[in-house]
Design the sequence.
């Protein structure tokens, strides 16, 4: 608790006025503000407005305690000595909870910059999003207690989601991203007559089921991104189908396909 003496101001009604702000100097609207006397008896109670301002009546001269509370913030209290006129007192509230951590590549532990980090509540509503910094760091400010989900995605990595439970303390949650497997290559179309026919490139899993399908570009190039590790078969169809097997681990695999 902090102790503040407020000298008498201009003659007028005896009251306590001021503003409630957070550590970033941003007003805290909807905060409950209570004035009690030295015995703990409630004298007045109110709620801050959109600008964080409040105004409470006081019975007269004396020493009082001003208490402010709001969701996601730690309660704050300060003593105020009132003379014969109105007194002013501002309160600064600190966040009760916070969430932050580092996004890293799971295979190397290297921080991942510019990853998209999205935070949703227990209903699935998005309540915040941002990008990881140079060191892979991300953070969200004060959060009410409850269950949340962090979803992270970045180019070259598989998206991931992590469940987090917030209480009344700051929580650190690092996120490791798995490398996304990629098959890319080109279909040899140099010997085909122009205009080149449309070439369909299909990706089959180990059971022979088509899991992806695309069309080769005008230069014959194709790519399949964000694949689970495993064994796949690439099929290029234009004239006679051509099949070539590819073994995929973590990282990128190149496989060129030549049409007969």
Sequence:
């Amino acid at each position: 608790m902090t102790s503040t003496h407020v000298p008498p101001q201009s003659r007028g009604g005896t009251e306590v006025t001021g503003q409630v702000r957070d550590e970033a100097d941003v007003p805290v609207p909807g905060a409950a503000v209570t004035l009690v006397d030295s015995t703990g008896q409630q004298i007045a109670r109110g709620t801050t407005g959109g600008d964080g301002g409040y105004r409470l009546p006081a019975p007269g001269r004396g020493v009082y305690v001003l208490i402010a509370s709001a969701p996601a913030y730690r309660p704050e209290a300060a003593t105020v000595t009132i003379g014969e006129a109105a007194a002013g007192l501002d309160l600064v509230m600190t966040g009760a909870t916070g969430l932050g951590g580092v996004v890293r590549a799971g295979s190397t532990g290297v921080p991942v910059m510019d990853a998209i980090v999205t935070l949703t509540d227990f209903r699935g509503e998005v309540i915040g999003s941002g990008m990881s910094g140079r060191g892979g760091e991300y953070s969200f400010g004060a959060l009410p207690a409850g269950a949340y989900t962090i979803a992270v995605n970045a180019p070259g990595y598989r998206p991931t989601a992590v469940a987090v439970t917030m209480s009344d303390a700051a929580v650190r949650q690092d996120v490791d991203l798995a490398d996304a497997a990629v098959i890319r290559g080109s279909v040899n179309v140099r010997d085909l007559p122009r205009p080149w026919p449309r070439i369909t490139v299909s990706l089959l899993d180990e059971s022979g089921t088509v899991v992806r399908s695309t069309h080769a570009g005008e230069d014959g190039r194709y790519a399949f991104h964000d694949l689970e590790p495993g064994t796949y078969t690439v099929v290029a169809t234009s004239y006679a189908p051509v099949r070539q097997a590819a073994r995929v681990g973590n990282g990128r695999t190149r496989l060129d396909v030549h049409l007969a």
Q: What stands out?
A: Residues 1-12 have pLDDT under 50 and may be disordered. The two ends are 83 Å apart (CA to CA). The chain has three domains: 2-93, 99-177, 181-258.
